């Protein structure tokens, strides 16, 4: 950008979820509980899958990284949001907004790609069980996780730098509870073609690639399950991917609802509710889904609770 086009805005004002003063304190406690459960649940998953020797498998390797991503995504949004419920001036600095946008984009892209890696893992486990540990080796797990983080970091740096290369020289009021692409683009007083193209391109590539991997994986998983003759065998095979299917359905369902709704029905209030769900509620639900439906995780939690010192020695 030329020096004359530099932004004149030094901070942004976040409208938040609701402007009603009487709702600020109740909303603060609601989201404090949600964030507290998110911290407790995801830290538990990270700890258990790190220290328990029986959870050192590819599935729990990806689950640990999903928990790290969920924790990061929620932490980028929730602390500032909670503070703004308690103050009259709900501001965020220009650079703080840039960091929040970059963090949100990066962790969301990483979650999309990690869910795809987990779908591939479940596909191999059910369709090629005898070769599972050969195909999904520790090196492949590390490679898939590294690629997910690399592409999410590339997406975050590219998109956020494009958005914040624009000029913000008039209004600085963001009609949202965090710094998001669409409200920021609407505030710009410069040409938004390049940032909008970057947002659309990177979001589309990550989402479409991930959905193709997930759909192909589960199509083959369903075919493999249907070929199993015994009902007990089908139930056992289905149980190995039920939690991931639930997480994928909730996550992609929310994203598709938000981005594929007709423009005539599109509103920022709807965006806010959808954003609350996939930035704060889903990171809280994921550990519950995986722990409540997973016998191995529940047993690992019991072992850790009964003898934490012995569990830590296993690291």
UniProtKB/TrEMBL annotation:
InterPro entries: GPCR_Rhodpsn, GPCR_Rhodpsn_7TM, Olfact_rcpt
Topology relative to the membrane: Multi-pass membrane protein
Domain G-protein coupled receptors family 1 profile: 41-290
Localization in the cell: Cell membrane; Membrane
Transmembrane segments: 27-49, 61-86, 92-118, 130-151, 205-226, 238-261, 273-292
SUPFAM superfamilies membership: Family A G protein-coupled receptor-like
Keywords, in A-Z order: Cell membrane, G-protein coupled receptor, Membrane, Olfaction, Receptor, Sensory transduction, Transducer, Transmembrane, Transmembrane helix
Superkingdom to which the source organism belongs: Eukaryota
Homology family: Belongs to the G-protein coupled receptor 1 family.
Purpose: Putative odorant or sperm cell receptor.
The name this protein goes by in its record: Olfactory receptor
């Amino acid at each position: 950008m030329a020096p004359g086009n530099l932004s004149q805005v030094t901070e942004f004002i976040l409208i938040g979820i609701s402007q009603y003063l009487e709702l600020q304190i109740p909303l603060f406690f609601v989201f404090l509980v949600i964030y507290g459960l998110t911290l407790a649940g995801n830290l538990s998953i990270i700890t258990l899958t790190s220290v328990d020797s029986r959870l050192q498998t590819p599935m729990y390797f990806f689950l640990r990284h999903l928990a790290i991503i969920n924790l990061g995504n929620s932490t980028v949004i929730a602390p500032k949001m909670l503070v703004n419920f308690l103050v009259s001036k709900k501001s965020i600095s220009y650079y703080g907004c840039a960091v929040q946008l970059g963090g949100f984009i990066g962790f969301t892209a990483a979650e999309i790609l990690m869910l795809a890696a987990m779908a591939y893992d479940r596909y191999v486990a059910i369709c090629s069980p005898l070769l599972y540990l050969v195909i999904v080796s520790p090196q492949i797990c590390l490679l898939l996780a590294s690629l997910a983080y690399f592409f999410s970091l590339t997406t975050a740096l590219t998109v956020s730098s494009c958005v914040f290369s624009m000029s913000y020289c008039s209004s600085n009021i963001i009609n949202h509870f965090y710094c998001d692409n669409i409200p920021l683009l609407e505030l710009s007083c410069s040409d938004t073609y390049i940032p909008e193209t970057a947002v659309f391109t990177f979001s589309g590539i990550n989402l479409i690639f991930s959905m193709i991997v997930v759909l192909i994986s589960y199509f083959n998983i369903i075919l493999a399950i249907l070929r199993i003759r015994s009902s007990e065998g089908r139930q056992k095979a289905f149980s190995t991917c039920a939690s991931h299917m639930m997480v994928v359905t909730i996550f992609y369902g929310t994203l598709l609802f938000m981005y594929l709704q007709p423009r005539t029905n599109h509103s920022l209030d709807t965006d806010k509710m959808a954003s609350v769900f996939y930035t704060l509620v889903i990171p809280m639900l994921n550990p519950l889904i995986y722990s409540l439906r997973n016998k191995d995780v529940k047993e690992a939690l019991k072992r850790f609770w009964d003898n934490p010192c012995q569990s830590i020695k296993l690291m």
